[in-house]
Amino acid sequence: MRAVRGGPFDNDRALHESIERNIKARYHLDWHPFKQYLHYIGPFNLDEQGPEFLGGDGTRAFGGVLAGDFGPSFKYRDFTVNDIIGQSLPISVSLGVIALLWALILGLSVGVASALWRGTRVDVGLRLVATAGIAVPNFTIAGFLVILFVFVVPLFPVAGYGTWRHLVLPGFALGGPFAAYIARLTRTGMLEVLSQDYIRTAHAKGLPPATVLLRHAIKGGVLPVVSYLGPATAGILTGSLVIERIFAIPGTGSHFVNSALNRDYTLAMGVTILYTVLVYTLNTAVDFAYTLLDPRIDLEES
């Protein structure tokens, strides 16, 4: 972003040279890029002292990333990046939770049904729907949902954010492709489990089919889905950048896109760091969950 011509204040009206120089000095944009980077990280003494718990005297107004301070926003000058993330992150998390729950409920249901009716017309139809769901991008699904549930059957609002109803359509649009992929993973996992000897043994003992399915088959069949939850969560985070723009939702993804357009360096870096930490944390949690569901996996050896 810094390598491209232009800056965060180039879209404003023409400023006097002295005013522009003072603005750049305020945000340290007149410093060497490497010095700006060290200042952004936080614990280095660059003619000013850092926060107390990092060895400084606590007089420094800008604490740095290691102090949990992402600095001021260049575009929203009355807010810090922490303020913007604090206001928008709960909205994005709510949207992501709805999308992930929708993807899991629909994907697992379709995958199990497709495996149980393997080779039938039901199986073929569900597989075609899943393939189409993977191929169609989420913004196309969003347009279809808007036409269907806003204009044809007006059940949900088309844009904005205020109540849970504003998150239904974007949540379904965001989770649709992931539901399709989860359906295919579930079908593959269920077919593998249903062919195992212990499943045939359970049937031979006279256990009801529902008991065999719920107690024995499901647990092993969803293991591929569990391993996919990490990448799916990352995909939902990045996919929300588009969906939030389409539905005018003031979430973190929408602010991230605006930060790139406005050259708001600190906001762009703050959201990037936030997404990186979230993806790493969720992937680690998925690895631990996988070991709990499958005792054959040794976390230390893996």
Topology at a glance:
Layout: H1 17-26, H2 33-41, H3 81-116, H4 121-135, H5 138-152, H6 168-194, H7 197-204, H8 209-221, H9 223-246, H10 252-262, H11 265-293
Helix pairs in contact: 3-4, 3-6, 3-9, 3-11, 4-6, 5-6, 6-8, 6-9, 7-8, 9-10, 9-11, 10-11
Identify the CATH homologous superfamily of the domain at 90-293.
MetI-like
CATH-derived architecture of the domain at 90-293: Orthogonal Bundle
Strand content: under 5%
Average pLDDT number: 82
User: Based on the structure, what is the oligomeric state of the protein chains?
Assistant: single chain
What series of H and E elements makes up the topology? HHHHHHHHHHH
Which class best fits the helix and strand makeup?
Answer: mainly alpha
User: What is the top-level CATH class of the domain at 90-293?
Assistant: Mainly Alpha
Taking pLDDT < 50 over at least 5 consecutive residues as the criterion, the unreliable ranges are: none
Q: Give the CA-based shape.
A: elongated
CATH topology of the domain at 90-293: MetI-like fold
- Cα radius of gyration in angstroms: 25 Å
Summarize the main sheet: none
- The helicity comes to 55-70%
Question: Distance between termini?
Answer: 38 Å
